[in-house]
């Protein structure tokens, strides 16, 4: 085994006996062979270990069992036990296509450790139909793109271990969307995402997966929003006007979702509100400053919310389904 370009494929699993062998087989079928497979079992109570036992005995995989600590912790356990120069993260119910590692290693050859390799991917729905997703990465300001939404599922990425360690890995504060948080910290640390033209993996949409729970996803979005805005508050004076307006637009739309749920954004996302207020008055607009002084940022966003639901018939539905709409096959052409 050569450690020069070794890829550590980290598969976190929780009760994945039905899918885990398929994920591992997709790695074994790679045209690039310089990899190690680390399976981190995050407290499975089904037959996951039993189906993996032959591969464990043959040394095909390294198996690590731990009490349930969450996906972010399981991935960090895999990182801590990895030997590779590069990291590939794979969920147990997803799989890679055969040339992904080969093409991504070629892509990263002679590039800085700050470069992140990205492939396109497929979504596979419960109906077994598939939809190819072509990832768009801005060539000018990638921060804008990732603030809007995370375009890169975790297994589309091949990244240097050094870069992940420099930003302390996955945040274990996150109960979901931990990859979005990591990619943003990578960007803020100087990382550059580059895409190659290859559909490299498949993301299965399963109704029983964690991402199908809208309430869980909303709570995770709250934590993510607070973390993003805390990071951005430290570099606000370095951002251009377009990026500032993009942050404000995304923040306001998320705050609108609180009004739908009849929750107080001030209680759940105070940092998001505070940064929105700072950005709102940075533009030389006297009306903005007057409104902020008179009614405050939360009431301003509420007025915007009322205007939008009155003038845009689909806006309320868009807010109600924001956390899980990407899972609906009907939303794809």
Radius of gyration: 21 Å
CATH topology of the largest domain: Spore Coat Polysaccharide Biosynthesis Protein SpsA, Chain A
**CATH architecture descriptor name of the largest domain:** Alpha-Beta Complex
Q: Low-confidence runs (pLDDT<50, min 5 residues)?
A: none
Mean of the pLDDT scores? 92
What is the terminal-to-terminal distance? 44 Å
Assign an overall shape: globular
Order of helices and strands: EHEHEHEEHEEHEHHEHHHHHH
- Beta strand %: 15-25%
Number of helices: 13
**Largest sheet descriptor:** 9 strands, mixed
Helical content stands at 40-55%
Number of domains: 2
CATH homologous superfamily (4th level) name of the largest domain: Spore Coat Polysaccharide Biosynthesis Protein SpsA, Chain A
Broad CATH class of the largest domain = Alpha Beta
Fold and architecture overview:
The structure is a single chain. With 333 residues, the protein is α/β, with parallel strands linked by helices. The chain has 2 domains: 7-212, Spore Coat Polysaccharide Biosynthesis Protein SpsA, Chain A, CATH 3.90.550; 214-320, no CATH class. It is built from 13 helices and 9 strands. Strands 1, 2, 3, 4, 5, 6, 7, 8 and 9 form a 9-stranded mixed β-sheet that branches. Helix 5 (142-148) runs antiparallel to helix 7, helix 8 (214-233) packs across helix 11 (270-280) and helix 11 packs across helix 12 (286-311). The radius of gyration is 21 Å and the shape is globular. The N and C termini lie far apart (44 Å).
Strand and helix layout:
Layout (H helix, E strand, L loop, with lengths): L6 E7 L6 H9 L6 E8 L5 H10 L4 E5 L4 H10 L5 E6 L3 E2 L3 H9 L6 E10 L5 E4 L8 H7 L8 E4 H6 L11 H11 L3 E13 L9 H20 L7 H21 L3 H4 L1 H11 L5 H26 L3 H6 L13
Parallel strand pairs: 1-2, 1-4, 2-3, 6-9
Antiparallel strand pairs: 4-8, 5-9, 6-7, 6-8
Helix pairs in contact: 5-7, 5-9, 7-8, 8-11, 9-11, 9-12, 11-12
């Amino acid at each position: 085994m050569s450690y020069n370009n070794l890829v550590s494929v980290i598969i976190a699993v929780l009760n994945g006996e039905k899918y885990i062998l398929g994920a591992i087989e997709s790695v074994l079928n790679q045209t690039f062979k310089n990899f190690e497979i680390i399976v981190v079992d995050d407290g499975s109570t089904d037959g996951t270990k039993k189906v993996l036992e032959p591969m464990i005995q043959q040394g095909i995989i390294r198996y690590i069992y731990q009490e349930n600590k969450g996906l972010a912790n399981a991935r960090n356990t895999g990182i801590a036990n990895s030997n590779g120069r590069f990291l590939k993260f794979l969920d147990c119910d997803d799989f890679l296509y055969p040339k992904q590692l080969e093409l991504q290693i070629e892509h990263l050859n002679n590039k800085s450790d700050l470069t992140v390799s990205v492939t396109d991917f497929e979504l596979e729905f419960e109906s077994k139909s598939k939809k190819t997703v072509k990832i768009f990465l801005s060539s000018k300001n990638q921060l804008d793109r990732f603030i809007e939404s995370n375009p890169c599922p975790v297994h589309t990425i091949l990244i240097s271990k050094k870069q992940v360690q420099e930003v302390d890995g996955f945040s274990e504060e996150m109960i979901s969307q931990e990859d979005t948080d990591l990619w943003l910290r990578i960007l803020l640390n100087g990382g550059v995402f580059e895409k190659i033209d290859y559909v490299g993996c498949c993301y299965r949409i399963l109704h029983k997966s964690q991402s199908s729970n809208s309430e869980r996803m909303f709570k995770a979005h709250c934590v993510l929003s607070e973390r993003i805005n805390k990071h951005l508050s430290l570099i606000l004076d370095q951002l251009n006007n377009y990026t500032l307006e993009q942050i404000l637009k995304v923040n306001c739309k998320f705050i609108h979702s609180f009004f739908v749920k009849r929750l107080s954004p001030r209680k759940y996302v105070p940092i998001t509100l505070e940064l929105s207020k700072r950005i709102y008055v940075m533009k030389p607009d006297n009306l903005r400053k007057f409104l902020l002084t008179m009614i405050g940022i939360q009431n301003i966003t509420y007025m915007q919310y009322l205007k939008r639901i009155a003038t845009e018939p689909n806006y309320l539905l868009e807010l109600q389904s924001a956390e899980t709409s990407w899972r609906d096959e009907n939303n794809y052409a």
